[in-house]
Amino acid sequence: MRFGAAASAAGAAAGKAKFSHEAVAGLIAAARERLDGVTIECLDFADVIARYDSPGTLFYCDPPYIGTAGYACRFTMCDHERLRDALATIRGRAVVSLNDCPETRRLYNEWDIREVGVTYSVGGRGADRGKRNGEVVMIK
Question: Fewest Cβ atoms closer than 10 Å to its Cβ: which of 73, 111, 119, 136?
Answer without folding.
Answer: 73
